Amino acid sequence: MSETFTFRVLATDGKARRGEVSMPRGTVRTPAFMPVGTAGTVKAMYLDQVRELGSDIILGNTYHLMLRPGAERMARLGGLHEFARWPHPILTDSGGFQVMSLSQLRKLTENGVTFRSHIDGAAYDMSPERSIEIQGLLDSDIQMQLDECVALPAEPKEIERAMELSLRWAERCKTAFGNQPGKAMFGIVQGGDVPNLRVRSAQALKALDLKGYAVGGLAVGEPQAVMLEMLDITCPELPDEKPRYLMGVGTPDDILKSVARGIDMFDCVMPTRAGRHGLAYTRRGKINLRNARHADDPRPLDEESDCPAARDYSRAYLHHLVRSQEALGAMLLTWNNLAYYQRLMRDIRDAIEAGRFAERSAEISEGWARGDLPAL
Fold this sequence. Notes:
Blueprint (H helix, E strand, L loop, with lengths): L5 E8 L2 E8 L2 E5 L1 E3 L1 E2 L9 H6 L5 E4 H6 L3 H6 L2 H6 L5 E4 L2 H7 L1 E5 L4 E4 L6 E4 L1 H11 L3 E3 L11 H22 L6 E6 L5 H13 L4 E4 L8 H11 L9 E3 L5 H8 L5 E3 L2 H7 L2 E4 L2 E4 L19 H4 L3 H9 L3 H28 L2 H14 L6
Parallel strand pairs: 4-15, 5-6, 6-7, 7-11, 11-12, 12-13, 13-14, 14-15
Antiparallel strand pairs: 1-2, 2-3, 8-9, 9-10, 16-17
């Protein structure tokens, strides 16, 4: 742990980086996957379990927490760490993506966004300053700038307008954040699928000399090839000595390919959401436990896994739980999925340190391609 917010690269293999983000509440080993704790909880998991699986940091959602239980109430109760019993690092997003995608009757201006809650229709104002204020009340360790995320495909002029607005908001967020020892505010590179806009956004944010940089506006409807092309263009424009965070990504394959391009941090609802819908991630690829082929199968998901959910429960039992809509099914499959994701990140870090990231990536991909065991 560090009394200040620091990042250091410990090893490289090609463009892949093994590093550490250190702050007063703990050290985050990178490349890192951050489980999403939208409303102060990683769905279907105890946070003690999340920690035991190897998570150094989780993500909280500003939009959802400001609506319920409320940022000021959270501050009175000691902040999100105390509230959720997670004393380790927390990153909060700005709430911007949810405002754009979930809220009703939103109105965007230079000052910010006026919107109505998707819960009860109550009216709220979200400016760059208010977003940073809310994240401060939550007492998160890494806070994100407010930005406008445009769904793809979109017209280049619309992408450019949103990118320029996000840059102006980044400056306002930096001023509002001020100097908070041991904490960081990250800027967010926008620009959609337009290469020169990505470069302009990255260069302008770099000039602000922030403590970290995120790449936003990807995994929002574009093919993987477009996402990777934008990373190829964007990452070289970002400072080597600062952490790089790819927001909302993604599948295990997305992670492997993004690490190869220099990304250090990831978050995604995919492993938890998939678990609640009967889908398991394994070293043999995805397994749909809703499928009738598992009804009489006594084998576990993965006999070699160190996660009890994968190793100790039969596929037949998991199938039964999923088809019966028992809560335990969602809990066990979410446990399995987060265990798999954290095992993947450990594998990636070890491979970078050993100088064999490309070889290990190929081995992992071959395991997915071979697929699941044949049915009995």
